[in-house]
Amino acid sequence: MKVHQIADVLFRKKTFDGGSHLESQMKRCLTILDVMFIAIGHMIGAGIYVLTGSVVRNQAGPAIILSFIFSGFAALLSAFSYAEFGARFPRAGSAYTYSYVGMGEIWAFIVGWTVPLEYMIGNAAVARSWSAYFDNLVSKSVSNWTLDTVGRLSDGKGFFALYPDFLAFFLLFLVAVAVAMGSKFSANVNTSFVFLNLAVLAFVIICGLTYADFSLWSGTYQDGRSKFFPYGIQGAISGASTCFFAFIGFEALATAGEEAKNPHRTIPLATFTSLAIISVIYVLMGASLTLMIPYDLVDPDAAFAAAFEMKGATVAKIIMSVGALAGMLNNLVTGSFALPRAVYAMADDGLIFGWFGVINSKTKTPLNATIVFTIINAILALVFDLQALVDFLSIGTLLAYSMVSICVIILRHQSHLVDGSATDYDNGGCLKSWVPFQGVWENFSEGISIRVAVAGLIFGYICLAIPFRTGIFSNAGGIILLTVGAAFSLLSFVFILGHEQNKSTSTYKVPLVPFIPCLGLLINVFMMVYLNSMTWIRLFVWLAIGIVIYICYGIRHSKEGQKLSKIDVHNEIMSRTSDTKVH
């Protein structure tokens, strides 16, 4: 196979015929409230009960409120892009589908393969945190029984947990049963938990603030560290990289696009409303925790319950613990809802085993994907340490969000129709008259120039981020990186501005393109650079497994590839028929 043929295979894009992007084997039964509460339910559990204690204790201290603001702003910028794609392509695959439409099959597979891992790790982390809260509520009876009966799994200082968490293991199976019973049933269960959890959070915020001690935020420690920034501003940024996972909820929301009644209106409204509500809650919860007790006394596993116990507020501790259990159960329902749908989207396109793409005739859910990935998910929760799981939470989300921002930039600056809607494209993708060397770009295929511009932008962002991550501002290497990064970023952005945009009015559109997606991409790249090296190593191992599956199975079974092959065969037959008639 020649190089250009390999490129055609790897970068072939998903197409929709007419209005078929709205057709689905699934049942379109979810309202705006249903979809919005899916996002809220998923974000509440992960952000408050899993991440807050860990980030306060180990990364940011009281500056976690800035971490939540930074990550919430970054999530908002990505949410604009998700809202546009969710309205135009309301499919279960979310970022995977958007990447397939905008960037091509190999990029879609990379994004699609990381999203299920993100959900599995997130679900496992929440299940273990649920178990920890319950164990704390019953005076460590569960952990003591397990250690006495089963014994230790490890020393608890590495990747594996101190003991096997059977409670988290079985909890994931119970939640999966509820999710497998149907989308509307799952949504109703989720909505009930959301109302309960919001009431508990309101109580916790008010009660926590009654113990507020603002001296915990002001002044310095004896070693000269700021009480508000005990880990410095870099700690707040590093915390934002981890906290960004807390906003993965609107990714879960996007996976419900194939089951929303009116996705063109539902997805954008639910996205922005849920994000606004959750951002306010996160900041208030982070403030109440860090004003109650010193950051270095925060329990990373059961932060709020332990804080109320230290203050002697037994009733508040019990209410908080019950609310935490309900909130994390809520989170597990939405996470378990989204996980099999992310897998189903890839299987339905033929990129992974088609058995995962089977929709059960009674429940109208991807039952096979639910069963298999719940088993994998439960094993993760059984043996891995909570902190090790938390460390790996954000990378897949940031990668997916970055790809969606890139796709918005590319699709807005191309000339051909991609969603089958009635659209006036004008001269989209053409270079403006002031752009130099237009003759050079005309020698390449259509769309290459905007892709080169985006690639240069990403390279520039990475060069800018490295000195901030490493703190090498003053030496020659840091200055060179900052100079190169600024030059590439500025020139690439100007080059993007030098492309005409197409005009689409059929659905919601991201405003201020390319400014908003480029800014969102900048923040995402910075946060990815701030993640630790082990997170990247684990990602590359997971991607290596996925690429093997894609090469051995996905390339040959891709429905988009089969569709193109049929077109090629049809064109060849028509060509031969035409030649025969001529002779």
TrEMBL record:
It holds the Pfam family AA_permease_C. It is a multi-pass membrane protein. The keyword Transport applies. Its main location: membrane. It catalyses: L-lysine(in) = L-lysine(out); L-ornithine(in) = L-ornithine(out); L-arginine(in) = L-arginine(out). Keywords: Amino-acid transport, Cell membrane, Glycoprotein, Membrane, Transmembrane, Transmembrane helix, Transport. The chain crosses the membrane at residues 30-51, 63-83, 95-115, 160-181, 193-212, 232-254, 266-293, 367-386, 392-411, 452-472, 478-498, 510-530, 536-555. GO terms for molecular function: amino acid transmembrane transporter activity; L-arginine transmembrane transporter activity. It is found in: Cell membrane. Residues 508-558 form the Cationic amino acid transporter C-terminal domain. One of its GO terms (cellular component) is plasma membrane. The keyword Ribonucleoprotein does not apply. Belongs to the amino acid-polyamine-organocation (APC) superfamily. Cationic amino acid transporter (CAT) (TC 2.A.3.3) family. This is Cationic amino acid transporter C-terminal domain-containing protein. It comes from Caenorhabditis elegans.
